[in-house]
Every structure is written in structure tokens, then in C-alpha cells.
Amino acid sequence: MLQLPEVAELRHRRKMVTNTLGGITIALFTSFLVAWIGFPDQLGSTSVLGIPLSLWVVLSQFAGTWVLVWAYFRLSRTYIQPAADAAIRAVADNRPDSEEVVA
């Protein structure tokens, strides 16, 4: 079944979404660690709009995580799910016992 083009496409799409969002997540948290470890004095003493830069960094991590979660759910629904539906149909059509596959 793994040789079916529809299943291969589903695996490719899942891999693309996982690797892309995973890479962005790693970059987001790495930048947080670099800022926190490398520039503690600047984060504590600098203010933007009356709010310490350290708080802005923490808020950016919170907001970035929510954006990544939203992107994952959005891509799951619009990019991965059509490929999953096609893969389910292809597997059901190629089953030797021709039983109905329940998704």
C-alpha cells in the first residue's frame, strides 16, 4: 500500500508540514534562548513602549507558539486532509477483499 501514489503524496505532505513547522519552532525557541542567555543586561534594562524588552521576548514566544499551532491546524485541514481522503479511497479501491474502509 505504501507504493500507491496517493499514499506517497500524503506522506510527502505530512513530512513537509512537520519539517517546516518543526524548523520554525526550533528557530523560535533557539532565538529565545540566545536572547535570554546572551543579552540578559539589555533585556532587563531596555524598554519599548514602557514595557521591558524581556517581557516582549517572552510574549513573542507565546504569540509565536499560538501562530504555529494555528498554522498546523489550518494546514492539516486544507493541505493534508485532501491527501488523506485520496489515500483512504486509493487503499479502499486496492484492497483484495474489497471491504469498506471506515475513516
Explain how this protein is built.
Helix content is 79%, strand content 4%. With 103 residues, the protein is mainly alpha-helical. The chain has one domain. It has a two-stranded antiparallel sheet. A hairpin with a 2-residue loop joins strand 1 (47-48) and strand 2. The longest helix has 41 residues, at 53-93. It starts with a helix and ends in a 10-residue tail after the last helix. 2% of the residues are buried. This is DUF485 domain-containing protein. InterPro entries: DUF485. Keywords: Membrane, Transmembrane, Transmembrane helix.
Sketch the major β-sheet.
Answer: 2 strands, antiparallel
The dominant shape is rod-shaped
Strand content: under 5%
Which class best fits the helix and strand makeup? Answer: mainly alpha
As laid out across the biggest beta sheet, the strand order is: 1-2
Helix content: over 70%
Helix-strand pattern: HHEEH
First-residue to last-residue Cα separation: 16 Å
Detail the poorly predicted runs. none
What average pLDDT do the residues reach? 87
Number of self-contained structural domains: 1
Number of strands: 2
- Radius of gyration over alpha carbons? 21 Å
Please tally the helical runs, counting DSSP H or I stretches of 4 or more residues. 3
Protein name: DUF485 domain-containing protein
Transmembrane segments: 21-39, 51-73
Keywords: Membrane, Transmembrane, Transmembrane helix
